[in-house]
Amino acid sequence: MRPQSLAKVDYYWNVMKIDPTSYVSKSAAIGKNVEIGPYTIVHDNVEIGDNSKIGAFCEIGLQTTNAQSPKLFIGAESNIRSHSVFYAGSSFGHNLVTGHRVTVRENIEAGSDFQIGTLCDLQGSSKFGNYVKLHSSVHIGQKSTIEDFVWMFPYVVLTNDPHPPSNHLLGVTVSRFAVIATMTTVLPGLNIGEGALVGAHSLVTKNVNANTVVAGSPAKYGGTKDILLDDKSGQAAYPWRFHFHRGYPTSLIDEWVIESQQ
After folding, report:
1. Helix or strand (DSSP H, E) at 128
2. What Rg, from alpha-carbon coordinates, does the chain have?
3. What span, in angstroms and rounded, lies between the C-alpha atoms of 37 and 23?
4. What integer pLDDT is reported at residue 224 of this predicted model?
5. Do the Cβ atoms of 161 and 142 come closer than 8 Å?
6. Each residue of 206-236: pLDDT tens digit?
7. 3-state helix, strand, coil in the chain (%, to 5)
8. Is the dihedral of CA 19, 23, 27, 29 positive or negative?
9. What is the spatial order of strands in the sheet that 97-98 belongs to?
10. Global model pTM greater than 0.70
11. Of 103, 112, 109, which is closest to residue 85 (Cα–Cα)?
């Protein structure tokens, strides 16, 4: 007969899929088929949707006096990788995916299919749409608004304090389908227009109009987006949704294909 302790391990891992070294509050609502890895802490008032995975050494639902709500909601089919910390007071739609060592502060409202890369730092009190993709080491200042289908590449920084340090914060707004390339800094209170492209190593000091290209330090207008793909196909690189479809559902792709033919 197996020792009772080992039998308990089998029960948690094979039935509940919760590692016995983790701590899961009795008041947390854990969905069906959820996996919680070794040494992870799930605090009170956390709800994790069905078929989600929480990696090792994570802390989920960390309480703070800055949170407008004590609750944290993680949607179904999510995958939070190891050493990540999520504070209380936020809500994330289904299919949230993170890299490792992500920090997500309080008062965030996010849609579905949100991708947060390794070492990203989300400073809270911000809104994210659907299918937002942040690559590694992106910093999002408080009061930011990121709309649907936005891409931000490594080391992008969205600032929010026009006179640091101060208590007067102005968040950045990034409109749908915009792309911000690596090592770019956007100054407080600015708007990045729909479908705009901000080139690598840019310092954005003015609003960026929709469907335009800016680059440089300070970023300057670079013409309309008549850039061709570097694959000798002769196809326009932008709007990117007309040719890049990886990771998006068929229903969206079909809409984009029709739009590209008009």
Report:
1. strand 126-128
2. 21
3. 10
4. 67
5. no
6. 999 999 999 999 999 986 667 889 888 888 9
7. 10, 30, 60
8. negative
9. 35-36, 53-54, 79-80, 97-98, 115-116, 133-134, 151-152, 179-180, 197-198, 212-215, 220-224
10. yes
11. 103
